Amino acid sequence: KLPPGPKGLPIIGNLHQFGRFLHKSLHKISQEYGPVMLLHFGVVPVIIVSSKEGAEEVLKTHDLETCSRPKTVGSGLFTYNFKDIGFAPYGENWREMRKIAVSELFSQKKLKSFRYIREDESQLLVRKVSKSALETPTSSVNLRKVIFTFAASIICRLSFGQNFCDFVDMETVEELVLESETNLGSLAFADFLPAGWIIDRISGQHSTVMKAFSKLTNFFELVIDDHLKSGKIEDHSDIISVMLDMINKPTEVGSYKVTDDHLKGLMSDVFLAGVNAGSITMIWTMTELSRHPRVMRKLQEEIRAALGPNKEKITEEDLEKVEYLKMVIEEAFRLHPPAPLLLPRLTMSDINIQGYSIPKNTMIQINTYTIGRDPKNWTKPDEFIPERFVDNPIEYKGQHFELLPFGAGRRVCPGMATGITIVELGLLSLLYFFDWSLPNGMTTKDIDMEEDGAFVIAKKVSLELVPTLHRW
Ligand code: HEM
Predict the structure, then answer these.
(1) CA distances, 162 to each of 165, 211, 380 (Å)
(2) Which residues form a coiled coil (predicted)?
(3) Mutate to test the pocket of ligand 1, among 60, 406, 412, 423 (most ligand atoms within 8 A of CB)
(4) Do the strands 464-469 and 451-453 form a parallel or antiparallel pair, or are they unpaired?
(5) Is 34 exposed, middle or buried (0-12, 13-18, 19+ CB in 10 A)?
(6) For residue range 252-286, what is the model confidence (pLDDT) as tens digits?
(7) Closest residue by Cα to residue 419 from 278, 286, 315, 295
């Protein structure tokens, strides 16, 4: 018994039914065909799961869950032959790489020892916005720029080295992240059609992807060269030096060998997944707050009452005191999950999902965008109401399948604790020190909500708001 789905055309399958955003097209189709559907992306059958129950069944069942996107032009290149974590097929490579990342980047010990980097950067963020508020009081700030720089500086400093910001400017970093992300996530004909690579070459897609990929590789080589030149390999001060040391050391026969591709694959994951998802979350949250002045007012009053007046800086202890901020972020995650389709999965054996038989080696996509707006899980699902999380046990950590911004199961985001701390710290700093208003002549109805991106979905038009230093 296979799941239902719209009838496709020969060779292209259902590709002609997709619009600019796959998560939205699948959302629309699922309203007609239900929460488990069979579609064809070209000649490749794909199961789309868009219910909480279906997601739970897929993500909890470890022996059938694995992940590997079919070898695509974009993801194969940007993951350095699938030697990264996020797109590596389930097996030794994924396990070893995840182990290295968890111990060198995401452990509780690392989270604590990198705390000063996050607090430093949040002070820098406040100084930058204060300067604009004092020097040009009625001018708006491009929040995408300041938020992106904040998130990127933290992620890059803690994974690529302390002096990272001294030799690369943030404009270059932003351009690289956005260009690489789009090319990694965009679908190629080679993914889904036999000989589709010919169309990719004729259409110019292949050369666009190759150009973006070589820019990213050149950038990574600059960071690696800096480590080699400054003799940082021995000191293990960051994950790059640890991995360079592993590459250089002779390994015993049969043991896991770290290569240059593993190092660049991990850099690619951290750089693209880490920087982008955090800043996107902060921007969507500030956007929803600007559209909902009642929530903004209530949140700022609660934050200022909890933290007290005239604080000089925000610290990570302050994050424990601001319950409503956490609800606001959860609500932003529900409506705008940064990676709405999660990482694609592939079945390792014949399995059953919600009573349907799914054969071995079938790709599965979970649509968290639909799950987050499902009226069975949420009342008034399209409205931004953070209060829905009051006395509600639902959290975003991968245990509650109606809210999955970080995924769940074996491939759950390993950067969750780092990511959420960055998001909370940045937002708390912006909301404690400044009052925010829309640029002159603009009303909440004028705020543009159009999306952009491929795998990670951002706000298309930059959010521009006018900051005023809060007077006590
Ligand atoms: C608000 C911030 C973040 C969000 C919303 C987010 C979201 C996600 C999501 C949805 C996945 C896929 C999970 C799945 O399919 O089940 C993922 C995986 C991943 N994320 Fe994050 N992420 C964030 C921050 C970070 C950070 C800061 C890093 C690293 C510095 C990071 C590194 C990764 C990696 C390496 C994977 C692949 C895991 C695997 O396949 O085993 N993420 N993330």
Answers:
(1) 8, 29, 46
(2) none
(3) 406
(4) unpaired
(5) middle
(6) 777 788 999 999 999 999 988 888 999 999 999 99
(7) 278
- For residue 123, the CA-to-ligand 1 centroid distance in Å is 25
Q: In angstroms, rounded to a whole number, what is the distance separating the alpha carbons of residues 445 and 289?
A: 13
Band of residue 68 on the pLDDT scale cut at 50, 70, 90: low
ipTM value > 0.85: yes
Worst-scoring range by mean pLDDT, 36-45, 59-68, 191-200, 416-425? 59-68
Q: What is the pTM of this model?
A: 0.94
Residue 58 · residue 65 · CB < 8 Å? yes
- The sign of the dihedral angle between the CA atoms of 442, 335, 186, 417 is positive
Q: What is the atom index within ligand 1 of the atom nearest the CA of 105?
A: 30
* Number of the ligand 1 atom closest to the C-alpha atom of 398: 16
**Torsion 127-128-130-136 (CA) sign:** positive
pLDDT of residue 421: 96
In angstroms, the CA 297 to CA 290 distance is 10
Ligand 1 centroid to residue 416 C-alpha, Å:
7
From CA 441, how far away is CA 83, in angstroms rounded? 51
**Which residues, judged by CB distance below 6 Å to any ligand atom, belong to the binding site of ligand 1?**
85-86, 98, 155, 269-270, 273-274, 277-278, 281, 338-339, 342-343, 405-408, 411-415, 418-419, 423
The answer to whether the annotation marks 413 as part of a ligand binding site is yes
Q: Is residue 401 within a helix (H) or strand (E), and if so which, with residue range? A: none
**What is the number of residues in the chain?**
472
Q: Pick from 107, 181, 413 the residue to mutate for probing ligand 1's pocket: most ligand atoms within 8 Å of its CB.
A: 413
